[in-house]
C-alpha cells in the first residue's frame, strides 16, 4: 500500500515529505483558527455590564485580571480558598469575594474564569458546566485583553521572568507609556504585582506551564532561557522547546522576538525562525554589554545594539544574572524603539522585585534575605552572587517545590546546594501534587555533605535563630511558604 501511495505521490509531482509538511501547516493553521474563534467568543463576554465569576480570584495573575475587567465596567465576583491581601484589595474596590468553593457562588454569572490549578471537579466548575455557563482559562482571557493594546510585551523563560518583567515595567514607566502590568511577584514601584494603566502598552510575565502563554497575542515575545522544568506536564526538554517555538510563532510579522543568544536550548528552539529577531547576551547577540565594572557589588555597563552604544546602565541589584536580565529588558525596549534615556533611568530605579533577593531585615546581627528560586539554575545564580558578597557565612534554608521537580532534578539540586557554608532543607512544598514519586528532603540532605533536613518551618526558624551571628547572610529560598521563616526571624529581634 505504501509503495502504491508513493507512486501516486510521485506521479503528481509531490513527495511524502511535501505532503507531511502540508499536513503540519494545516494543523498549525487549524490551531490558530480555533484560538481565534475562542478569542472572538470571549470578546462577546468581555464587555461593560457583563458578569464574570473568577474561581481562584486571589491568585497572582487572577487578582490583576479581576481588577482590569472591573475597571473596564464588568460586574466581577470571585472565590478563593483563603483570605489574603489580594482578596482584601479586591473587596476594597467593591468586588465581592467569598472564601471556599460552592455551587451557589456562581449565581448570576455569564462566564466563569479559572486558574490552571482549578480542575473540573471544582464545585463551581461543575455547576457552570451543568448550567451551560462558558468556562474560560485565565490565560485565554489575558490573551483577549492584550489584543486591545498596540504593544504587548510578554516575558517568558524558565527563570528570570519576574525580574525582567519588572525591569521592563520600570523602563516603560520611565518612558511615560502608562502601561498595564501583570507580574508574578510584588514590585516596590507599584506596591503590588500589577498595574492598570491608560496607555497602549501591556506587559505580562508569561509562563509556559500547561502551555498557558500560547493563549497570548504578543507583539514583543521575550525568551530568557529554556531548561527542563514542569516535567509533570511536559514530556521532556524537546517538548518544552516545542512550546517556546510555538510561543515565538505567535508574534505577528511586524512584531519582534527577543531571545538569549547565549542559551543553546533557546537558539535551537528558534532555529529557522522567520521574521524579526533581536538577540541578547552578556557578550554575544545584537544587544550585549561592554565596559562592565562593579561598584560596591553592583554592576555598571554600556548597552550596545548592533555595534552602537545605546546608553550606560547602573544597576542597583547584584549578580551577572541581573546584568543579563537587564540586557533582555533593554532589547525589548529597543524593539519598541524606546529612547536610551528611558532604559538607563528605568533600570537605575529598579531595586529588585518581591522575593527576588529581597532584604527582610536583621536578626542577631545577621542579614536576612528571601528569594523565590526553585530551579537549580536559579539557585546557582543566587548562590554564586551571595557567596561573593563578602559575608563570613552564607546560610541557605531551601524549601524544594513539588515532588516531581525535586525527583527529576535531584542531582542538579544536590550539586548546587553544596555551595553555601550551611545548607538546611525544609520539607518539600507539595503545591498541586501528591507524593507519587517517593522523594523527600531527607533524601536530598543525604546527598549534600553537612546538610540537614528540618521537619517543620517553626523548627527551621528556631534553628536559624540559634545559629545567627554578625557577619552571616541568611537566605530563605523557595517558591512555597518558606518566606514566612525569614519574616518571623526578623520579627524575633536582635536579642
What does this protein look like?
By secondary structure, the chain is of the alpha/beta class. It folds into four domains: 2-44; 46-141, 3-Layer(aba) Sandwich (Rossmann fold); 147-348, Mur-like, catalytic domain (UDP-N-acetylmuramoyl-L-alanine:D-glutamate ligase, 3-Layer(aba) Sandwich), CATH 3.40.1190.10; 358-491, Mur ligase, C-terminal domain (Protein-Tyrosine Phosphatase, Chain A, Alpha-Beta Complex), CATH 3.90.190. The protein contains 17 helices and 21 strands. It has helices at 2-11, 16-45, 62-71, 85-92, 123-131, 138-146, 161-174, 237-249, 264-269, 320-335, 340-348, 376-386, 403-408, 410-416, 441-446, 457-467, 483-491; strands at residues 51-55, 75-80, 96-99, 111-114, 135-137, 151-156, 180-187, 192-195, 201-205, 220-223, 256-260, 277-281, 287-295, 298-305, 308-314, 358-363, 366-371, 393-398, 422-426, 452-454, 472-477. A ten-stranded mixed beta sheet has the order 8-7-9-6-10-11-12-13-14-15, with helices on both faces. A six-stranded mixed beta sheet has the order 16-17-21-18-19-20, with helices on both faces. Strand 2 (75-80), helix 4 and strand 3 (96-99) form a beta-alpha-beta unit. Helix 7 (161-174) packs across helix 11. The chain is globular and about 60 Å long. The protein starts with a helix and ends with a helix. Residues 1-13 have low confidence and may be disordered.
Amino acid at each position: 500500500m505504501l509503495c502504491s501511495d508513493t507512486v501516486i505521490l510521485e506521479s503528481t509531482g509531490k513527495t511524502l515529505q511535501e505532503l507531511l509538511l502540508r499536513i503540519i501547516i494545516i494543523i498549525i493553521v487549524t490551531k490558530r483558527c480555533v484560538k481565534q474563534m475562542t478569542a472572538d467568543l470571549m470578546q462577546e463576554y468581555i464587555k461593560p455590564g457583563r458578569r464574570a465569576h473568577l474561581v481562584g480570584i486571589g491568585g497572582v495573575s487572577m487578582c490583576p485580571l479581576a481588577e482590569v475587567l472591573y475597571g473596564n465596567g464588568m460586574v466581577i465576583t470571585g472565590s478563593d480558598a483563603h483570605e489574603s491581601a489580594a482578596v482584601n484589595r479586591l473587596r476594597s474596590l467593591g468586588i465581592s469575594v467569598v472564601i471556599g468553593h460552592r455551587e451557589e457562588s456562581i449565581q448570576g454569572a455569564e462566564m466563569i474564569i479559572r486558574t490552571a490549578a482549578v480542575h473540573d471537579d471544582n464545585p463551581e466548575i461543575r455547576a457552570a458546566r451543568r448550567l451551560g455557563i462558558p468556562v474560560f482559562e485565565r490565560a485565554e482571557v489575558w490573551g483577549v485583553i492584550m489584543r486591545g493594546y498596540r504593544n504587548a510585551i510578554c516575558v517568558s523563560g524558565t527563570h528570570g521572568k519576574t525580574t525582567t518583567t519588572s525591569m521592563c515595567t520600570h523602563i516603560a514607566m520611565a518612558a511615560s507609556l502608562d502601561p498595564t502590568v501583570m507580574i508574578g511577584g510584588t514590585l516596590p514601584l507599584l506596591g503590588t504585582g500589577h498595574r492598570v494603566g491608560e496607555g497602549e502598552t501591556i506587559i505580562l510575565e508569561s509562563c509556559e506551564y500547561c502551555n498557558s502563554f500560547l493563549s497570548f497575542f504578543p507583539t514583543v515575545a521575550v525568551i530568557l532561557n529554556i531548561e527542563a522544568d514542569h516535567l509533570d506536564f511536559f514530556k521532556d526538554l524537546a517538548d518544552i522547546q516545542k512550546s517556546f517555538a510555538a510561543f515565538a510563532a505567535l508574534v505577528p510579522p511586524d512584531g519582534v522576538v527577543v531571545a538569549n543568544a547565549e542559551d543553546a536550548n533557546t537558539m535551537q528552539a528558534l532555529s529557522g525562525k522567520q521574521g524579526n529577531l533581536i538577540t541578547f547576551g552578556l557578550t554575544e547577540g545584537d544587544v550585549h554589554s561592554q565596559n562592565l565594572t562593579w561598584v560596591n557589588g553592583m554592576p555598571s555597563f554600556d548597552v550596545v545594539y548592533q555595534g552602537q552604544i545605546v546608553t550606560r546602565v547602573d544597576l542597583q541589584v547584584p549578580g551577572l544574572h541581573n546584568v543579563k536580565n537587564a540586557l533582555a529588558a533593554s532589547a525589548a525596549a529597543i524593539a519598541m524603539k524606546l529612547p536610551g534615556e528611558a532604559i538607563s533611568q528605568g533600570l537605575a530605579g529598579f531595586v529588585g522585585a518581591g522575593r527576588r533577593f529581597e532584604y527582610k531585615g536583621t536578626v542577631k546581627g545577621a542579614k536576612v534575605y528571601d528569594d523565590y528560586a526553585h530551579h537549580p539554575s536559579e539557585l546557582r545564580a543566587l548562590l554564586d552572587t551571595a557567596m561573593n558578597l563578602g559575608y563570613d557565612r552564607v546560610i541557605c534554608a531551601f524549601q524544594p517545590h513539588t515532588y516531581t521537580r525535586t525527583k527529576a532534578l535531584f542531582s542538579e539540586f544536590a550539586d548546587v546546594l553544596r555551595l553555601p557554608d550551611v545548607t538546611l532543607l525544609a520539607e518539600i512544598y507539595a503545591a498541586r501534587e501528591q507524593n507519587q514519586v517517593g522523594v523527600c528532603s531527607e533524601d536530598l540532605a543525604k546527598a549534600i555533605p553537612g546538610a540537614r533536613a528540618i521537619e517543620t518551618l517553626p523548627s527551621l526558624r528556631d534553628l536559624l535563630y540559634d545559629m545567627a551571628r554578625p557577619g552571616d547572610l541568611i537566605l530563605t529560598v523557595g517558591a512555597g511558604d518558606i518566606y514566612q521563616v525569614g519574616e518571623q526571624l526578623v520579627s524575633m529581634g536582635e536579642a
